[in-house]
Amino acid sequence: MPTITVLLLSGELNTIDRHILREWLTIFALVLAATVGLLLIQAMYSDFRDLQNMGAGLGDMAYYFIITIPSFLSFVLPVIVLVSLLYALGQLHRSNEITAMRAAGLGIFRITRAIWLAGLVLCGVMWGLNASVVPWSVEASRSLLEQMGFKHEAAQAQEASAVGVTRTVTFDNQQAGRLWFINRYSRFAQRAYGVSVSELTLKRQEKIRFYAEEARYDQERGCWVFLRGRETWFDLETGHETRVVNFDERVMSYYTEDPALMLVFDVKPNDLSFFELRRIIEYFQSDDNPKLTIYLIRYYEVLASTLGPLIVIAIAIPFAVSGVRVNPAVGVSKSLGLFLLYFVLMKFATALGVRGTLDPLVAACVPSAAMILIGAWFFARMR
User: Fold this and answer.
1) What percentage of the chain carries pLDDT values higher than 90?
2) Which H, E and C letters describe 71-116, residue by residue?
3) Quick one: CA dihedral 264, 265, 271, 274, positive or negative?
4) Taking the complete model, does pTM exceed 0.85, yes or no?
Protein backbone atom coordinates (compact mmCIF):
# COMPACT_ATOMS: atom_id res chain seq x y z
CA MET A 1 0.00 0.00 0.00
CA PRO A 2 2.31 2.77 -1.28
CA THR A 3 0.14 5.72 -0.17
CA ILE A 4 0.14 4.58 3.44
CA THR A 5 3.87 3.82 3.27
CA VAL A 6 4.55 7.40 2.13
CA LEU A 7 2.43 8.79 4.96
CA LEU A 8 4.22 6.61 7.48
CA LEU A 9 7.62 7.81 6.28
CA SER A 10 6.48 11.43 6.35
CA GLY A 11 5.16 11.03 9.90
CA GLU A 12 1.59 11.94 8.98
CA LEU A 13 0.29 8.67 10.43
CA ASN A 14 0.73 8.84 14.20
CA THR A 15 0.70 6.09 16.80
CA ILE A 16 -3.09 5.81 16.84
CA ASP A 17 -3.23 5.48 13.05
CA ARG A 18 -0.55 2.82 13.00
CA HIS A 19 -2.23 0.92 15.86
CA ILE A 20 -5.66 0.93 14.17
CA LEU A 21 -4.16 -0.02 10.83
CA ARG A 22 -2.04 -2.83 12.29
CA GLU A 23 -4.98 -4.36 14.16
CA TRP A 24 -7.15 -4.32 11.06
CA LEU A 25 -4.55 -5.51 8.53
CA THR A 26 -3.64 -8.46 10.76
CA ILE A 27 -7.25 -9.67 10.71
CA PHE A 28 -7.58 -8.72 7.04
CA ALA A 29 -4.66 -10.98 6.09
CA LEU A 30 -6.08 -13.89 8.08
CA VAL A 31 -9.57 -13.52 6.61
CA LEU A 32 -8.12 -13.14 3.10
CA ALA A 33 -6.08 -16.34 3.43
CA ALA A 34 -9.00 -18.27 4.93
CA THR A 35 -11.50 -17.05 2.31
CA VAL A 36 -9.26 -17.76 -0.67
CA GLY A 37 -8.44 -21.16 0.81
CA LEU A 38 -12.12 -22.03 1.21
CA LEU A 39 -12.93 -20.86 -2.31
CA LEU A 40 -10.04 -22.90 -3.67
CA ILE A 41 -11.32 -25.97 -1.84
CA GLN A 42 -14.79 -25.33 -3.24
CA ALA A 43 -13.36 -25.00 -6.77
CA MET A 44 -11.40 -28.23 -6.34
CA TYR A 45 -14.50 -30.01 -5.06
CA SER A 46 -16.54 -28.67 -7.96
CA ASP A 47 -14.07 -29.21 -10.82
CA PHE A 48 -11.76 -32.01 -9.69
CA ARG A 49 -13.99 -34.84 -10.91
CA ASP A 50 -14.60 -33.14 -14.27
CA LEU A 51 -10.87 -32.56 -14.73
CA GLN A 52 -10.15 -36.16 -13.80
CA ASN A 53 -12.75 -37.41 -16.29
CA MET A 54 -11.08 -35.32 -18.97
CA GLY A 55 -7.81 -37.10 -18.30
CA ALA A 56 -6.04 -34.04 -16.92
CA GLY A 57 -2.72 -34.69 -15.20
CA LEU A 58 -1.66 -33.30 -11.82
CA GLY A 59 0.30 -30.53 -13.53
CA ASP A 60 -2.72 -29.45 -15.60
CA MET A 61 -4.95 -29.52 -12.51
CA ALA A 62 -2.49 -27.49 -10.44
CA TYR A 63 -2.09 -24.90 -13.20
CA TYR A 64 -5.87 -24.65 -13.65
CA PHE A 65 -6.53 -24.02 -9.96
CA ILE A 66 -3.64 -21.52 -9.73
CA ILE A 67 -4.93 -19.38 -12.60
CA THR A 68 -8.49 -19.66 -11.22
CA ILE A 69 -7.61 -18.05 -7.85
CA PRO A 70 -7.44 -14.40 -9.12
CA SER A 71 -10.99 -14.64 -10.48
CA PHE A 72 -12.24 -14.98 -6.87
CA LEU A 73 -10.66 -11.79 -5.61
CA SER A 74 -12.84 -9.07 -7.13
CA PHE A 75 -16.08 -10.31 -5.58
CA VAL A 76 -14.69 -11.54 -2.23
CA LEU A 77 -12.51 -8.51 -1.47
CA PRO A 78 -15.41 -6.31 -0.22
CA VAL A 79 -16.67 -9.17 1.97
CA ILE A 80 -13.18 -9.68 3.39
CA VAL A 81 -12.93 -5.95 4.16
CA LEU A 82 -16.33 -6.08 5.87
CA VAL A 83 -15.65 -9.09 8.08
CA SER A 84 -12.13 -8.00 9.04
CA LEU A 85 -13.24 -4.45 9.90
CA LEU A 86 -16.19 -5.58 11.99
CA TYR A 87 -13.99 -7.95 13.97
CA ALA A 88 -10.94 -5.66 14.40
CA LEU A 89 -12.88 -2.50 15.27
CA GLY A 90 -15.35 -4.49 17.35
CA GLN A 91 -12.46 -5.80 19.44
CA LEU A 92 -11.12 -2.28 19.95
CA HIS A 93 -14.61 -1.07 20.87
CA ARG A 94 -15.17 -3.82 23.44
CA SER A 95 -11.78 -3.15 25.02
CA ASN A 96 -12.79 0.54 25.43
CA GLU A 97 -9.98 1.78 23.17
CA ILE A 98 -12.37 3.50 20.76
CA THR A 99 -14.26 5.02 23.71
CA ALA A 100 -11.02 6.38 25.18
CA MET A 101 -10.01 7.94 21.87
CA ARG A 102 -13.39 9.63 21.48
CA ALA A 103 -13.26 10.82 25.09
CA ALA A 104 -9.91 12.43 24.24
CA GLY A 105 -11.70 14.56 21.66
CA LEU A 106 -10.97 12.55 18.53
CA GLY A 107 -13.78 12.21 16.00
CA ILE A 108 -14.62 8.85 14.49
CA PHE A 109 -13.29 9.91 11.09
CA ARG A 110 -10.02 11.02 12.68
CA ILE A 111 -9.71 7.69 14.49
CA THR A 112 -10.33 5.67 11.32
CA ARG A 113 -8.56 7.88 8.77
CA ALA A 114 -5.86 5.26 8.16
CA ILE A 115 -8.58 2.78 7.27
CA TRP A 116 -10.08 5.23 4.79
CA LEU A 117 -6.64 5.72 3.21
CA ALA A 118 -6.28 1.96 2.97
CA GLY A 119 -9.75 1.86 1.40
CA LEU A 120 -8.61 4.23 -1.34
CA VAL A 121 -5.65 1.96 -2.01
CA LEU A 122 -7.97 -1.06 -2.13
CA CYS A 123 -10.13 0.79 -4.68
CA GLY A 124 -7.01 1.04 -6.83
CA VAL A 125 -6.40 -2.66 -6.26
CA MET A 126 -10.00 -3.41 -7.30
CA TRP A 127 -9.51 -1.38 -10.47
CA GLY A 128 -6.32 -3.27 -11.27
CA LEU A 129 -8.02 -6.60 -10.62
CA ASN A 130 -11.08 -5.77 -12.73
CA ALA A 131 -9.09 -4.18 -15.55
CA SER A 132 -6.40 -6.83 -16.04
CA VAL A 133 -5.90 -9.66 -13.53
CA VAL A 134 -9.45 -11.00 -13.26
CA PRO A 135 -10.15 -10.82 -17.03
CA TRP A 136 -6.96 -12.76 -17.71
CA SER A 137 -7.88 -15.33 -15.04
CA VAL A 138 -11.43 -15.78 -16.34
CA GLU A 139 -10.37 -16.18 -19.96
CA ALA A 140 -7.32 -18.35 -19.27
CA SER A 141 -9.13 -20.76 -16.93
CA ARG A 142 -12.11 -21.06 -19.27
CA SER A 143 -9.85 -21.63 -22.27
CA LEU A 144 -7.79 -24.24 -20.45
CA LEU A 145 -10.91 -26.09 -19.32
CA GLU A 146 -12.31 -26.03 -22.85
CA GLN A 147 -9.07 -27.29 -24.38
CA MET A 148 -8.84 -30.18 -21.94
CA GLY A 149 -12.48 -31.02 -22.66
CA PHE A 150 -11.85 -30.86 -26.41
CA LYS A 151 -8.88 -33.20 -26.16
CA HIS A 152 -10.97 -35.67 -24.17
CA GLU A 153 -13.79 -35.50 -26.72
CA ALA A 154 -11.35 -35.81 -29.63
CA ALA A 155 -9.93 -39.03 -28.20
CA GLN A 156 -13.40 -40.56 -28.29
CA ALA A 157 -14.91 -38.90 -31.37
CA GLN A 158 -14.43 -40.21 -34.89
CA GLU A 159 -14.31 -36.74 -36.45
CA ALA A 160 -12.74 -33.52 -35.19
CA SER A 161 -15.76 -31.61 -36.51
CA ALA A 162 -17.91 -33.22 -33.79
CA VAL A 163 -15.73 -31.87 -30.95
CA GLY A 164 -16.53 -28.64 -29.10
CA VAL A 165 -19.60 -27.94 -31.22
CA THR A 166 -21.85 -24.91 -30.79
CA ARG A 167 -25.06 -25.26 -32.76
CA THR A 168 -27.20 -22.63 -34.49
CA VAL A 169 -24.95 -19.58 -34.37
CA THR A 170 -26.55 -16.37 -35.66
CA PHE A 171 -24.71 -13.07 -35.99
CA ASP A 172 -26.09 -9.80 -37.31
CA ASN A 173 -23.30 -7.46 -38.34
CA GLN A 174 -25.37 -4.35 -38.97
CA GLN A 175 -22.31 -2.16 -39.51
CA ALA A 176 -21.22 -4.20 -42.53
CA GLY A 177 -24.72 -5.27 -43.57
CA ARG A 178 -24.13 -9.01 -43.18
CA LEU A 179 -26.39 -11.56 -41.53
CA TRP A 180 -24.74 -14.87 -40.61
CA PHE A 181 -26.27 -18.24 -39.91
CA ILE A 182 -24.04 -21.19 -38.98
CA ASN A 183 -25.55 -24.62 -38.49
CA ARG A 184 -22.70 -25.70 -36.20
CA TYR A 185 -19.28 -24.39 -35.27
CA SER A 186 -16.48 -26.56 -33.87
CA ARG A 187 -14.23 -24.56 -31.55
CA PHE A 188 -11.79 -27.47 -31.53
CA ALA A 189 -11.42 -27.73 -35.30
CA GLN A 190 -11.96 -23.96 -35.75
CA ARG A 191 -14.42 -24.76 -38.54
CA ALA A 192 -17.98 -23.71 -39.33
CA TYR A 193 -20.36 -26.10 -41.10
CA GLY A 194 -23.50 -25.21 -43.00
CA VAL A 195 -22.71 -21.50 -43.34
CA SER A 196 -25.08 -18.97 -44.88
CA VAL A 197 -24.23 -15.26 -45.13
CA SER A 198 -26.65 -12.70 -46.54
CA GLU A 199 -25.38 -9.32 -47.70
CA LEU A 200 -28.05 -6.68 -47.10
CA THR A 201 -28.77 -3.18 -48.35
CA LEU A 202 -29.34 -0.23 -46.02
CA LYS A 203 -33.04 -1.08 -46.19
CA ARG A 204 -32.22 -4.64 -45.02
CA GLN A 205 -32.99 -6.14 -48.44
CA GLU A 206 -31.02 -9.24 -49.36
CA LYS A 207 -28.88 -8.69 -52.45
CA ILE A 208 -26.31 -11.53 -52.25
CA ARG A 209 -26.23 -14.79 -50.33
CA PHE A 210 -23.20 -16.99 -49.81
CA TYR A 211 -23.67 -20.60 -48.81
CA ALA A 212 -20.85 -23.03 -48.02
CA GLU A 213 -20.66 -26.54 -46.66
CA GLU A 214 -17.64 -25.50 -44.63
CA ALA A 215 -15.83 -22.28 -43.71
CA ARG A 216 -12.85 -21.29 -41.62
CA TYR A 217 -11.42 -18.06 -40.29
CA ASP A 218 -7.89 -17.54 -41.60
CA GLN A 219 -5.91 -15.93 -38.80
CA GLU A 220 -3.03 -14.87 -41.04
CA ARG A 221 -5.26 -13.16 -43.61
CA GLY A 222 -7.78 -11.95 -41.04
CA CYS A 223 -10.75 -13.08 -43.11
CA TRP A 224 -13.04 -16.04 -43.87
CA VAL A 225 -12.48 -18.77 -46.44
CA PHE A 226 -15.57 -20.57 -47.77
CA LEU A 227 -15.34 -24.13 -49.13
CA ARG A 228 -17.70 -26.00 -51.47
CA GLY A 229 -20.48 -23.48 -51.84
CA ARG A 230 -22.39 -21.15 -54.08
CA GLU A 231 -23.00 -17.42 -54.48
CA THR A 232 -26.52 -16.23 -55.28
CA TRP A 233 -27.65 -12.78 -56.46
CA PHE A 234 -31.21 -11.51 -55.89
CA ASP A 235 -33.39 -8.92 -57.55
CA LEU A 236 -34.05 -6.21 -54.96
CA GLU A 237 -37.55 -5.53 -56.21
CA THR A 238 -38.90 -9.07 -56.57
CA GLY A 239 -36.49 -11.07 -54.37
CA HIS A 240 -36.03 -13.64 -57.15
CA GLU A 241 -32.68 -15.26 -57.91
CA THR A 242 -30.92 -13.64 -60.84
CA ARG A 243 -27.62 -15.50 -60.86
CA VAL A 244 -25.98 -18.48 -59.15
CA VAL A 245 -22.25 -19.31 -59.19
CA ASN A 246 -20.78 -22.44 -57.59
CA PHE A 247 -17.26 -22.50 -56.17
CA ASP A 248 -14.85 -24.92 -54.50
CA GLU A 249 -13.05 -22.25 -52.48
CA ARG A 250 -13.68 -18.55 -52.05
CA VAL A 251 -11.53 -16.19 -50.00
CA MET A 252 -13.76 -13.40 -48.67
CA SER A 253 -11.18 -10.74 -47.84
CA TYR A 254 -13.77 -8.29 -46.49
CA TYR A 255 -15.50 -10.85 -44.23
CA THR A 256 -13.49 -10.01 -41.13
CA GLU A 257 -15.91 -11.05 -38.36
CA ASP A 258 -14.02 -12.66 -35.48
CA PRO A 259 -15.54 -16.08 -34.63
CA ALA A 260 -14.75 -15.55 -30.94
CA LEU A 261 -16.93 -12.44 -31.00
CA MET A 262 -19.64 -14.26 -32.93
CA LEU A 263 -19.82 -16.96 -30.25
CA VAL A 264 -19.61 -14.66 -27.23
CA PHE A 265 -23.38 -14.09 -27.09
CA ASP A 266 -23.73 -17.72 -26.01
CA VAL A 267 -21.92 -16.83 -22.76
CA LYS A 268 -23.76 -15.20 -19.85
CA PRO A 269 -22.64 -11.59 -19.16
CA ASN A 270 -21.54 -12.51 -15.61
CA ASP A 271 -19.21 -15.18 -17.05
CA LEU A 272 -17.49 -12.77 -19.43
CA SER A 273 -14.29 -10.95 -18.62
CA PHE A 274 -13.96 -7.17 -18.58
CA PHE A 275 -12.02 -7.36 -21.86
CA GLU A 276 -14.76 -9.40 -23.57
CA LEU A 277 -17.49 -7.04 -22.35
CA ARG A 278 -15.57 -4.07 -23.70
CA ARG A 279 -15.08 -5.77 -27.07
CA ILE A 280 -18.81 -6.45 -27.37
CA ILE A 281 -19.70 -2.88 -26.47
CA GLU A 282 -17.16 -1.32 -28.84
CA TYR A 283 -18.27 -3.56 -31.71
CA PHE A 284 -22.03 -3.25 -31.33
CA GLN A 285 -22.49 0.19 -29.75
CA SER A 286 -23.39 1.89 -33.04
CA ASP A 287 -25.85 -0.87 -34.02
CA ASP A 288 -28.50 -0.15 -31.39
CA ASN A 289 -28.54 -3.90 -30.77
CA PRO A 290 -31.15 -4.81 -28.10
CA LYS A 291 -28.88 -7.58 -26.82
CA LEU A 292 -26.25 -5.00 -25.97
CA THR A 293 -28.10 -3.53 -22.97
CA ILE A 294 -27.44 -6.40 -20.55
CA TYR A 295 -23.74 -6.34 -21.47
CA LEU A 296 -23.58 -2.58 -20.95
CA ILE A 297 -25.12 -2.95 -17.50
CA ARG A 298 -22.65 -5.68 -16.55
CA TYR A 299 -19.75 -3.56 -17.86
CA TYR A 300 -20.78 -0.55 -15.77
CA GLU A 301 -21.35 -2.81 -12.73
CA VAL A 302 -17.74 -3.96 -12.95
CA LEU A 303 -16.59 -0.34 -13.07
CA ALA A 304 -18.87 0.66 -10.17
CA SER A 305 -17.55 -2.23 -8.06
CA THR A 306 -14.23 -0.36 -7.89
CA LEU A 307 -15.77 1.74 -5.10
CA GLY A 308 -16.75 -1.39 -3.18
CA PRO A 309 -14.08 -1.12 -0.45
CA LEU A 310 -15.04 2.46 0.44
CA ILE A 311 -18.75 1.58 0.52
CA VAL A 312 -18.04 -1.37 2.81
CA ILE A 313 -15.91 0.81 5.12
CA ALA A 314 -18.71 3.40 5.35
CA ILE A 315 -21.13 0.65 6.39
CA ALA A 316 -18.82 -1.39 8.64
CA ILE A 317 -17.41 1.39 10.84
CA PRO A 318 -20.77 2.58 12.29
CA PHE A 319 -21.82 -1.01 13.08
CA ALA A 320 -18.47 -1.83 14.68
CA VAL A 321 -17.88 1.19 16.93
CA SER A 322 -21.34 2.43 17.91
CA GLY A 323 -23.89 1.13 20.38
CA VAL A 324 -23.30 -1.43 23.09
CA ARG A 325 -20.32 -3.77 23.09
CA VAL A 326 -21.97 -6.88 21.70
CA ASN A 327 -20.68 -9.92 19.89
CA PRO A 328 -19.19 -9.09 16.44
CA ALA A 329 -21.67 -11.54 14.93
CA VAL A 330 -24.41 -8.95 15.50
CA GLY A 331 -22.60 -6.40 13.36
CA VAL A 332 -21.82 -9.04 10.75
CA SER A 333 -25.49 -10.07 10.52
CA LYS A 334 -26.63 -6.45 10.14
CA SER A 335 -24.02 -5.75 7.47
CA LEU A 336 -24.85 -8.94 5.59
CA GLY A 337 -28.46 -7.77 5.63
CA LEU A 338 -27.33 -4.61 3.84
CA PHE A 339 -25.39 -6.76 1.37
CA LEU A 340 -28.61 -8.67 0.70
CA LEU A 341 -30.37 -5.33 0.11
CA TYR A 342 -27.56 -4.40 -2.30
CA PHE A 343 -28.08 -7.55 -4.38
CA VAL A 344 -31.86 -7.08 -4.40
CA LEU A 345 -31.38 -3.51 -5.64
CA MET A 346 -28.88 -4.72 -8.24
CA LYS A 347 -31.30 -7.33 -9.63
CA PHE A 348 -34.18 -4.84 -9.62
CA ALA A 349 -32.13 -2.11 -11.33
CA THR A 350 -30.81 -4.61 -13.89
CA ALA A 351 -34.35 -5.70 -14.73
CA LEU A 352 -35.37 -2.06 -15.23
CA GLY A 353 -32.29 -1.47 -17.36
CA VAL A 354 -32.99 -4.47 -19.60
CA ARG A 355 -36.58 -3.26 -20.12
CA GLY A 356 -35.29 0.17 -21.09
CA THR A 357 -36.85 1.93 -18.09
CA LEU A 358 -33.42 2.97 -16.82
CA ASP A 359 -30.30 3.91 -18.73
CA PRO A 360 -27.67 1.10 -18.43
CA LEU A 361 -25.24 3.42 -16.61
CA VAL A 362 -27.93 4.48 -14.13
CA ALA A 363 -29.06 0.86 -13.62
CA ALA A 364 -25.50 -0.19 -12.82
CA CYS A 365 -24.85 2.71 -10.42
CA VAL A 366 -28.14 2.72 -8.48
CA PRO A 367 -27.15 -0.07 -5.99
CA SER A 368 -23.75 1.50 -5.22
CA ALA A 369 -25.27 4.97 -4.88
CA ALA A 370 -27.90 3.61 -2.49
CA MET A 371 -25.24 1.96 -0.33
CA ILE A 372 -23.19 5.18 -0.26
CA LEU A 373 -26.23 7.12 0.97
CA ILE A 374 -26.99 4.48 3.62
CA GLY A 375 -23.37 4.49 4.78
CA ALA A 376 -23.35 8.31 4.95
CA TRP A 377 -26.58 8.24 6.98
CA PHE A 378 -25.15 5.75 9.50
CA PHE A 379 -21.96 7.79 9.73
CA ALA A 380 -23.89 11.01 10.32
CA ARG A 381 -25.87 9.39 13.16
CA MET A 382 -22.63 8.65 15.03
CA ARG A 383 -21.84 12.32 15.60
Assistant:
1) 15
2) HHHHHHHHHHHHHHHHHHHHHHHHCCHHHHHHHCCCCHHHHCHHHH
3) positive
4) no
